[in-house]
Amino acid sequence: MLPTESATRSAYAVGIRAEGLTKQYGDKAAVSDLSFSAEPGVITGFLGPNGSGKSTTLRMLLGLVRPTQGKITIGGHHIAELDDPARTIGTLLDARAIHPHRTAQDHLLAFAHAAGLGRERVDEVLEIVGLTDAATRRAGEYSLGMKQRLGIATALLGDPGVLVFDEPLNGLDPEGIRWIRTLMRKMAAEGRTILFSSHLMSEMELTADNLIVIGQGRLIAESTLDEFVRAHTTQGVTVRTASRVELVRALNRAGIKLEETPDSGLLVHGVDSATVGRIAAAEGIALEELTKVRESLEDIFLRLTHDVTDYGSQPA
Amino acid sequence: MNVIRSEWTKLRSVRSTWIAVLSTISSAVALSVLGSSDLSDVSPTNLPADWDPTAASLDGFLFAQLVIGMLGALSITPEFHNGMIGTSLATVPARSRLLAAKAIVVTAIALVTSLVTTLLTFTGGQIMVSRAGLPAAGIGDPGVAGALIGATLYLTFIALIGAGIGTVTRSTASSLAVLVGALLLVPALGPSLPGFVGEWFARYWPITAGQAAYKVVPMSDMVTPVLGIVILALAAAATTVAGHAAFRVRDV
Ligand SMILES: Nc1ncnc2c1ncn2[C@@H]1O[C@H](COP(=O)(O)OP(=O)(O)OP(=O)(O)O)[C@@H](O)[C@H]1O
Ligand SMILES: [Mg+2]
Predict the structure, then answer these.
(1) Which residues of chain B make contact with A101, given a CB cutoff of 8 A?
(2) Partner-chain residue, chosen from B15, B79, B87, that has the shortest CB–CB distance to A111
């Protein structure tokens, strides 16, 4: 989705840019030479398997973790150089990062004061996230979903142009997920930069406009969601035949990639069924089944990150 | 100013702060009153040469100092435990500013708490002394007001030391362990070390030296009240600087 006209003219237009970002923990690179950008007016999904370096990247963005090399900036500035950080960037890193004995209201008030704001703004954000009635309860008594809402309320306090959420949909029920999704849409439509991370492709599919995919701290893909789907949804075809060996040989000769499916069929990548049919016919191979398949985004994500996944399980 | 308000809101809105304040006051008063129950051995006609009812009443600080030290530590350690420090630094990325605001708020709360603790402990102690038929100290007596100021500063600096320790250790339990060591164990055991080292601990260990600040009658084996409070102030400054340095360089 392109930024709407009003969005590009908005007062918020500040993006995020990572350049050669690297974080080394001992021998292990949590983030490796990562470059990407997130633009105003769209929702950018930051996707990667567990341990791929998403949180580390976001923590470097927020100035909590110092990069070993490279930089990540907000409108060209390191967060510490911003004139008014609380009104420029809002963040939800971890919904459980609250003092369990403090009321939601006081929690928000503490951060509101730091941003030079008062009680009125606290009441406003409580209203936005629907916690007005629970405002005077201790945050420790909140359900995970309510904590998530409180975290979002904290992020919204300064009415910032950049919103950064780490796994905001984690542990939410479908209603909560829909709520955050709608909120992010609205915020993006107002011209804000939204960067949110997830390790689940299914969460991105319905929410993100743009996608940054990482694996083992490295960039795997950066594009719009649509382009990503187009580029990576290889047209696949499953084939079943009695003459498997011959067909594999023929397809290999034609330079076509394929793999075996668990149920002893063949999955052919990158070509349509007509091509497979033609090759089979030319070799005189009788086909028992020829089906077009379209990989789910989840499958694409798993395939792309598989080679670089630390803890990935071996295929059956 | 905004950051100070923010830190004040954080501290005032958790009950641990107020529990620490009340425990500081009540433990000091209770210990002072209990401690004066052995006054019955003292005869009013034959007072010891170093009879110092002011300092005697303030010996009730033994546990109070630990509690107020924890008050300082608790201004920051929970944020590390629960991860809120990340949100705090995203809101106030200038780490020195954030830490300075915490230190100011801790100092303010500790100063008021220490003053109340000192006055109540002194008063409670003197009531017990009078009851025992012994000459009690009055706030107008020579040196007494100075000792009470010294006592107030003593507790306040310990709260600051606690905040510094909390910033370095980032852990409530570790802060408690370090404070128990620095406030109770070292002053008790250090002086029994052999030779010069033991003598140094007996006079100059900042906690021990700081306790000279609330003596009205000078003690030959202690530093002077002013030197004592200066040494403790330097220790508080050093701990604060160490916390600041650690907080600036470490990832959160
Ligand atoms: N402080 C640290 N010290 C050492 N290693 C760390 C540290 N923080 C993160 N790592 C390592 O860096 C890698 C990336 O971690 P990170 O938390 O950024 O991943 P993530 O993509 O957020 O994962 P998840 O989806 O599980 O949240 C992991 O291998 C992790 O073990
Ligand atoms: Mg993470």
Answers:
(1) 14-16
(2) B87
Report the alpha-carbon distance of residue A57 to residue A80 in Å, rounded.
Answer: 16
Write out chain B residues lying below 8 Å of A65, CB-based. 251-252
Domains and CATH numbers, chain A: 5-222 (3.40.50.300), 234-293 (3.30.70.980)
Per-residue pLDDT reduced to its tens digit, A30-50 = 999 999 999 999 999 999 999
Chain A residues within 8 A of B15 when measuring between CB atoms: 101
Residue of A21, A31, A34, A54 to test ligand 1 pocket, by largest number of atoms within 8 Å of CB: A54
- For residues B44 and B27, give the distance between their C-alpha atoms in angstroms, rounded to a whole number: 28
Sign of CA dihedral B12, B16, B19, B23: negative
Mapping DSSP to helix (H, G, I), strand (E, B) and coil, where does residue A38 land?
A: strand
Q: How close are the terminal C-alpha atoms of chain B, in Å?
A: 24
Distance from the A316 Cα atom to the nearest Cα atom in chain B, whole angstroms: 39
Does the beta-carbon distance from A85 to B90 stay under 8 Å? yes
In sequence order, the 6+-apart residues with CB closer than 8 A to the CB of B9 are A106, A109, A110, A113
**Contact between residue A305 and residue A215 where contact means Cβ atoms under 8 Å apart:** yes
| Residue tagged 């052919």 (tokens) | A268
Q: Write out the H or E segment, with its range, that includes residue B118.
A: helix B95-131
Quote the ligand 2 centre to A250 CA distance (angstroms): 45
Q: Which two tokens stand for residue A129?
A: 């996230």
Range from A255-269, B105-119, B140-154 carrying the lowest mean pLDDT: A255-269
Nearest to B187 by CA among B211, B164, B219, B220: B211
From the list A27, A61, A6, the residue with the least C-alpha distance to A197 is A61
Ligand 1 residue neighbourhood (C-beta within 6 Å): A 25, 30, 48, 50-56, 199
* Range of A287-301, B55-69, B79-93, B208-222 with top mean pLDDT: B79-93
Most B-contacting residue of A25, A72, A91, A111 (CB-CB within 10 A), to test interface = A111
Q: What is the pLDDT of residue A312?
A: 45
**Nearest chain A residue (CA) to B90:** A62
Q: Which of B39, B70, B251 has its CA nearest to residue B160?
A: B70
8 Å CB contact between A53 and A30? yes
For B14, the closest of A101, A109, A116 (CB atoms) is A101
pTM for the full predicted model: 0.86
Beta-strand runs (E) in chain B:
none
* CB nearest to B93's CB, from A66, A79, A100: A79
List Cα–Cα distances, A252 to A119, A256, A261, in angstroms: 69, 5, 17
Distance A69 CA to ligand 1 centre (A): 17
Rounded average pLDDT over B116-140: 91
User: How far apart, in whole angstroms, are the C-alpha atoms of residue A70 and residue A195?
Assistant: 19
